[in-house]
Amino acid sequence: MKFTARQIAEILNGDIEGNPEATVSKLSKIEEGEKESLTFLSNPKYTNYIQSTNASICIVNKDFKSEVELTTTLIRVDDSYEAFSKLLEYYNQIKLSKSGIESPSFMSDSVSLGQDCYIGAFSYLGENVKIGDNVKIYPNVYIGDNVEIGNNSILFPGCKVYSESIIGENCVIHGGAIIGADGFGFSPDDQGIYKKVPQIGNVIIKDDVDVGAGTTIDRATLGSTVIHEGVKLDNQIQIAHNVEIGKHTAIAAQTGIAGSTKIGEHCLIGGQVGIVGHVQIGNYVKIQAQTGVGRNVKDKEAIQGSPALGYNDFNKSYVHFKNLPETIKRLNSLEKTIRKNESKS
């Protein structure tokens, strides 16, 4: 799909300097700009690249001044970074603007399907599924019985949504994610043989949640596993049964959260964090990567280590840890000196 400088300027409410009919069909970084590509200049460190870029159109701030004549067409806006982000969003909307029902796919007769939806090939929609307006379900998606999906949500190829799960509006579920699989519930009998505990709860994902590729969110044993509004989950995260994650918390890849743990709002959790079950994590908590959390965490704490320490305590301790070989060497030398003095006395 091609756009002219005139069309882009209208979208961004910008002013054109150069050829209004210049066309672009792709995006590029300013230092890698090619013909018929669109780029932008925001960071002054990259100003020299605008003189040599081959990009056909470049978005710049209104106060930008060049000391040499430029070959690229400029679109001047108040904030070039914000404008480029807006354009990316616009481009993404066009790219994802699929609609219709592809064949082969299966939908139960009891499915309720909203307007302007897209159902990709080889997708399966079970009994009593309710799909809102403008929902995009890409190929090879499984949606179990009694699932509800809100308006404008996107399910990318290969994700699985088990029965009874509820997904809100404007959510994005990436490929390979599994929503509503059984929680890890087993109980040993007298012989130490594990018997499965039925998992009869569900998963509730509120509005504006992103779930990364390969992430799993287990259904509750009883009640619901709840992911609140605006939560952002990276790839390959494990969220166990009956976990609750508060609004606008962001969690990086390969984190594992054990059952019945409650995480507060606006938390930042780094990659490869492990959190035990049945603990409470407060609001605005920061957990550094590879931390092992085995206790409750108060509001606004920053923690690190395994087991976790206060972030500042960990850094102080780590300074000593790095110096440990030298410290041991000095200690051994001191002990030898003491023994020599004792033998002389």
Automatic annotation (TrEMBL):
Its EC number is 2.3.1.191. Catalyzes the N-acylation of UDP-3-O-acylglucosamine using 3-hydroxyacyl-ACP as the acyl donor. Is involved in the biosynthesis of lipid A, a phosphorylated glycolipid that anchors the lipopolysaccharide to the outer membrane of the cell. Pathway: Bacterial outer membrane biogenesis; LPS lipid A biosynthesis. The keyword Acyltransferase applies. The active site is at 241 (proton acceptor). The keyword Acyltransferase applies. GO terms for molecular function: N-acyltransferase activity; UDP-3-O-[(3R)-3-hydroxyacyl]-glucosamine N-acyltransferase activity. Residues 22-89 form the UDP-3-O-[3-hydroxymyristoyl] glucosamine N-acyltransferase non-repeat region domain. One of its GO terms (cellular component) is membrane. It is an enzyme of class 2 (transferase). It catalyses: a UDP-3-O-[(3R)-3-hydroxyacyl]-alpha-D-glucosamine + a (3R)-hydroxyacyl-[ACP] = a UDP-2-N,3-O-bis[(3R)-3-hydroxyacyl]-alpha-D-glucosamine + holo-[ACP] + H(+). Keywords: Acyltransferase, Lipid A biosynthesis, Lipid biosynthesis, Lipid metabolism, Repeat, Transferase. Homotrimer. This is UDP-3-O-acylglucosamine N-acyltransferase. SUPFAM superfamilies: Trimeric LpxA-like enzymes. GO terms for biological process: lipid A biosynthetic process. Belongs to the transferase hexapeptide repeat family. LpxD subfamily. InterPro entries: Hexapep, LpxD, Trimer_LpxA-like_sf, UDP_GlcNAc_AcTrfase_non-rep. It comes from Psychroflexus salarius. It comes from the Bacteria. NCBIfam families: lipid_A_lpxD, PRK00892.1.
